[in-house]
Specification:
CATH topology of the largest domain: Rossmann fold
Strand order of the largest sheet: 10-9-8-11-12-13-14-15
CATH class of the largest domain: Alpha Beta
Radius of gyration: 26 Å
Number of domains: 2
Number of strands: 15
CATH superfamily of the largest domain: NAD(P)-binding Rossmann-like Domain
CATH architecture of the largest domain: 3-Layer(aba) Sandwich
Oligomer: single chain
């Protein structure tokens, strides 16, 4: 990755050619081996970390005038902190274990920085000046840094780095998530999960992809997709975006143990109560926590009304929640949802509620009241829930 960027970004290439120990980590430019003095006038080594704006796979540009720094506050020859370095204590999670960001600095020249080379040079002169003077230290080590390429994404995850939420994204690193049913809500869940850094996504749906499916699933319709298996369509759509997407053209039944081996969480997105029953039995027997989603819609007053439901079954409380009969486990003969009414916004909203709840469970989002059963009423746009189950 670094070599590609160096070939297409003159400022990065200049840094490397001059001898800086440059690498790319989590969409940040990193310059290691930066000498500085601590408050005891001892020689230390730190790292400068600078945000990048990613234009495409080959081109980046400077983001702002600030930097992050791995190390203590650099000091002058007399041991006092170097002045004119605004900022303060902060943290930033990077993939390389040797990079521990401790603070940020801000020193903006009147005309700003023209590029990354000018920015790094300016900060090195400020931070390393006393160490160079006292110890003849040299920040130009020509060190080559091995890059960490463990991301599940085939494109750089610039969203995470720009938002500085890398530490939260790590909560998904060991997750293998199953989506059982890729209809309306399941297809939107798949779209959301593909952009979540879980290790693996397994999707299961035996059905074919027809026109009505295109009206309640994300993305555009390609004419050659009609009449193919949903599994084939979604595998092709998402495998170019990330690794670890595995979509299977099959049903999950009460004896599908091998299909769910290694799964750490599941979403159940089926519209038949009788199918749910067997799936629930399987998940509970394998100690897999899961979320079940569903809709209860009708046209008694001419317009469609009803509720969207998201119910969480933890390993510890699944039997208790089953006893509350919050989820239909038999088929409803007059379910309007089976009439293929095109309600993509409700599918998407149901998927949103489910993915938010999943991310709360993982600690990505705050969760003040531990709701395990959510009901969204269409008529009043009201969301209510029940809590108390762990």
């Amino acid at each position: 990755m670094l070599s590609i960027l160096a070939n297409h970004n003159q400022d990065i290439n200049r840094l490397i050619e001059k001898g800086y120990a440059v690498s790319i980590d989590s969409n940040h430019l990193v310059v290691r081996d930066i000498p500085y003095l601590d408050n005891g006038k001892s020689l230390q080594s730190g790292s400068i970390v600078s945000k990048l704006i990613v234009i495409d796979d080959k081109h980046v540009k400077i983001d702002d005038h600030q930097i992050f720094f791995c190390g203590a506050h650099p000091c002058e020859l007399d041991g006092t902190p170097i002045r004119n370095l605004g900022g303060g204590l902060t943290t930033l999670t990077l993939s390389s274990k040797d990079l521990v960001v401790e603070r940020s600095f801000s020193n903006k020249p009147s005309n700003g920085f023209a590029d990354l080379f000018e920015k790094i040079e300016s900060y090195v002169n400020i931070i390393s000046g006393p160490a160079i003077n006292l110890y003849n230290a040299n920040p130009l080590t020509f060190q080559t840094i091995e890059e960490n390429n463990e991301s599940v994404f085939k494109y750089r995850d610039t969203l995470t780095s720009r938002a500085e939420i890398g530490d939260l994204s790590l909560k998904f690193a060991e997750e293998t998530v199953a989506i059982i049913g890729l209809g309306g809500t399941g297809s939107y869940l798949l779209d959301f999960l593909v952009k979540t850094p879980v290790k693996e996504i397994r999707g299961f749906d035996f059905d074919w992809f027809h026109v009505h499916n295109a009206f309640r699933s994300p993305g555009k319709l390609e004419s050659d997709e009609l009449g193919k298996k949903k599994a084939e369509i979604y595998q092709s759509k998402y495998e170019g975006f990330r690794h670890g997407v595995k979509i299977y053209p099959k049903f999950i039944l009460s004896d599908s143990y091998s299909d769910l081996e290694g799964v750490t969480f599941a979403f159940v997105c089926v519209d038949k109560g009788s199918s749910r029953s067997g799936i629930f039995e399987l998940l509970m027997s394998m100690n897999i926590p899961f979320l079940d989603v569903g809709m209860g819609l009708d046209r008694d007053k001419g317009s469609i009304s009803g509720t969207l439901r998201t119910t969480y079954f933890s390993v510890e409380s699944s039997k208790d929640i089953m006893a509350e009969k919050l989820v239909p486990l038999t088929d409803l003969p007059d379910d309007i949802y089976k009439n293929n009414i095109q309600i993509s916004e409700l599918n998407a909203l149901n998927a949103c509620l489910a993915i938010i709840k999943y991310k709360q469970i993982q600690g990505f989002y705050a969760d003040d009241n531990t709701l395990y059963h959510l009901l969204f009423t269409i008529d009043s746009l009201n969301l209510v829930g029940e809590n108390g189950k762990n």
